[in-house]
Amino acid sequence: MSRLRGQSQNRESQESGPDDPGAAFPPQHFGGVTARPQLIGLLLALVTLLLYLPAGRYAFVVYDDQEYVSENHIVQQGLTWGGVKWAFTTWHACNWHPVTWVSHMVDCQLFGPNAGAHHLVNVLFHVANTVLLFALLVRL
């Protein structure tokens, strides 16, 4: 019995602890297969990217893109002080979401009316959120 305890203590001392930089993402064991969370996160990012990448070929849709981008003259001017002030003081489209407005203004500043580029920025947001959610779940 003491021999088993000694092995258990040695094993515990070899594993990464809270002070170890590798402790944030320890390997996970799934029936004999060891998967690193970094690899899983990378695979999730790639799958999400590949799944949504075709959105870059699409035009603006007739849902709310007119109010937000394609027919919104303030947003189409790009990132301006007047536009930022408007973003933080307006309830346009029945919502107060200044970060959304500023994001659309930056898209217009960088890409103009190119709908595909606007969609690809959103794809990158989806990829980032997928990885962030996975990282949060790994830590729970």
Rounded to an integer in angstroms, the radius of gyration calculated over CA atoms is 23 Å
Poorly predicted regions: none
Question: What's the arrangement of strands in the largest beta sheet?
Answer: 1-2
Taken in chain order, the helices and strands follow as HEEHHHHHH
Description:
The chain is mostly helical. The chain is built from 7 helices and 2 strands, in the order H-E-E-H-H-H-H-H-H. Strands 1-2 form a two-stranded antiparallel sheet. Helix 6 crosses helix 7 (115-139).
Q: Secondary structure elements and their pairing?
A:
Blueprint: H1 2-14, E1 28-30, E2 33-35, H2 37-52, H3 65-70, H4 73-76, H5 81-89, H6 98-111, H7 115-139
Antiparallel strand pairs: 1-2
Helix pairs in contact: 2-7, 5-6, 6-7
How would you describe this structure in keywords?
140 residues, mainly alpha, two-stranded antiparallel ribbon, 7 helices, elongated
